[in-house]
Each structure stands twice: as structure tokens, then as C-alpha cells.
Amino acid sequence: MPKSKGRPVLHAATVLALLAGSAYFTVELRKDAEAKVPAVQSVTDKPDLENSAGKATGKQTWERLNNPTRSVLRGKDGEILATFTDGARTATLRGPSRTFTEPANTQSRVVTEDWVRLMPEAWRKGAEKEKWFKDWFKQYYGSEEDDIFAFAFQYVQGAPVKKDDEGVPYAGDAVFGPFKEDGVDRLEQNDFYDYLGMNYTFRDGTTMQARKERYRALDCSGFMRMVWGYRARYPLMATNTIGDGLPRSADGMARSKVGVDIIKLSGPSPWYTRPKNIDVVQPGDLLFFKMDHRTGNHLDHVALYLGVDTDGHRVFISSRKEVNGPTMGDKGGASRIDGNGFYAGLLRSAKRL
């Protein structure tokens, strides 16, 4: 973890997080095939080709695909082992199967062989021949070290507290934010340093002050900054305008030049247009929504796409007011981007970091 100023003060929320382990999600490594589980999702150029294998060659092969421009590594039987998108550091690797659940808030189950990781450099055509990639791939392909998905589920309801070498709790049950004075709505703008309870100095030298009343709180974009930035080491801006890297807000992230726009924002403001086709999204993509008329032209919610659950729905995890924290839950609307549900109707764009 990076060096920061100040130390958090443990309080009752930490104790409660430790006691809530019974509601914590389960991550199971599957030892044998599960016939009822959908095959690993892979992104292809045509929806009807999803989950299909290429031609068996008896050896691993590289293939270039479009929409978005990317390289895929196929196995000996033609199955997709990894996907790398031009201009993005996000890699989706095939690995041991895991099951993500959150029984406290939903019956949805995601069984996936996708492991989402950050590469040290953005992908480019021919990078498979470069030393930096060969070294990185050798280390992480097949590795069960925590990835983006594992990080994300370490903040859902009942997640146990994890501490760094200095005793600072960096993971565990997070809330969305404290109540406003009206006792109904919750305060937003809760970033990762608020959750940590310590002041944080960014790469450009800007120091942001943690607010004690927001300790253990992450709003939707703060949750993404915790997972991708503080945990996975993606560069972070101090605000939407100061520094370089991933901006502070959902709207800032959506409109930023970082990463690759997989589904571009379109249509007239302030509500824009729901995408007609979402087949291009892959596990690990950031999803952006327009939900509140009070935010003007801004997109106001961001989520992490997980893939297809065992019911066949495309689901995500995000920090939400209704559940009061990170969730893939159903309260306030199912966390789905397919069909005609609440969030599906408000999806506006997607980005791959």
C-alpha cells in the first residue's frame, strides 16, 4: 500500500464488520465440471458466436479481432484463454472457476472462469512478443492471486476486515455513506481515503483530507477508485481536474480519455440514449448510468461488469444507496443491464481501463 498521512481510528463499525461474516459472499474454486453452469463468457464480434470455440489447431494461437480492436489468445482446442484490448491495461484471463454470491441481498450467482487483471502497460498490436508482457503473463496466467473481482467483493455486506502491515484496515464491509440531515438520503462523494480514514497524497503532490464522519464509506465512484486505484494500482486523479489517471466522479470517468470507450455515450442530453447493443461488453468493464434528473447533463452512477449469472442475466457490482454499500443485489432494482429493468433502462456507456 502507498504511504499516506495520518492513521484511521478503529470504531464500532469495524467490530460490526467482523461480526457480520455470516452474510459474507462465498468464493468457491470448482474442482470438477458443473453441467448446469454456463460456459465462460468471451467477447466476440457477433452475439451468436459468444462462448463458441475457434478452430482446433493443437497449439496456442493469437488472433486479431475488431469492435473493439483486440488480440485474443486461443488454446489448443480453439477456446479463448485471454483477451487484450488495444489501448487498455485491462486483461481478461481464463482461470479456475469461482462462484460469487451475496445471499444477504440477492439470489444471483456468478460462476466465472474470468480473472480480470491490470497489465503494467496498455495493450498494442504485437505486444505478445514483448518482454514486459511475457514476464507479466507468466506470472499471472493461472494465478489465483486476488484480481479485480476478488477486490470488489471484499467490500460487500459482511466482508471481513483486512489490515495492511501497519495495521490499517484496507478492506471490509463498506457503507455507501452517512445519512444527510433529513435522515432519508445519504451523503455522496465518499472516496477511498474516507473509507481508509487517512489523508492521502496523490502522485502530483495533492493531498486530500479524510473526513471522520465518512469513515468506511464508499460511493459508487469511490468504490471503483478503491478497487482499481488503491488496490490494483491504476493511477488516480485527486479530483476530476487535478492530476492524471482515473477521475473522481462517475461522469468524470465516463468522459475521460483513459482506457477505451467500448460503448460510446450517444443521444441528446441530459438523458442521452440507451445503447441498442451491449454484446461488446466483457467482464471488468466500467458501466455508466444516467439515473437522476438533479445531476443535469452528468452521468451519475458507475458499476463493474461481472458477466452472466447462472440465470443468464448480465450483472454488475456497484456501491448503492439502497443497500448502503457495494452490492450485486436486487434491492432498488436488479443489478442487470439486460432486459427492461431499472438499471438496464438507464445504462448509457461503457469503458475498458
TrEMBL record:
Belongs to the peptidase C40 family. This is NlpC/P60 domain-containing protein. Residues 182-353 form the NlpC/P60 domain. Residues 1-25 form the signal peptide. It comes from the Bacteria. Keywords: Hydrolase, Protease, Signal, Thiol protease. The lineage of its organism: Bacteria, Bacillati, Actinomycetota, Actinomycetes, Kitasatosporales. Pfam families: NLPC_P60.
